[in-house]
Amino acid sequence: MHNSSKERYKLEFIAFAKKTRQAFLTDDQGARKLAAQVMPSNMVQTTPHLLGWLLFISYLNDNDLQKIISEHQKFHRPLKKYFLEVYTMVLEYKLKAFTNSV
To answer: What is the pLDDT of residues 48-60, one digit of tens each?
Structure first.
């Protein structure tokens, strides 16, 4: 796929997300920066954002996280650091929520 085709698809996805008031999910830094210019920044999210939410609501657990990281590394993807950072944040938020409810 040519770069111009990729750029066109990015624009189409961003326009669709904005028009339908849905979050735009991407790991492409260029697409993320472009989307943040035309949409509220809280509506532009990444895979670590999604992973964090799924961990926070307990849809995923520690075992799932390890499987996700292993599979991610198998394909030489660079997000392990961010997955672990978001996991730490989730644990902190869960601890605060638990402490405040006791």
So the answer is: 999 999 999 999 9
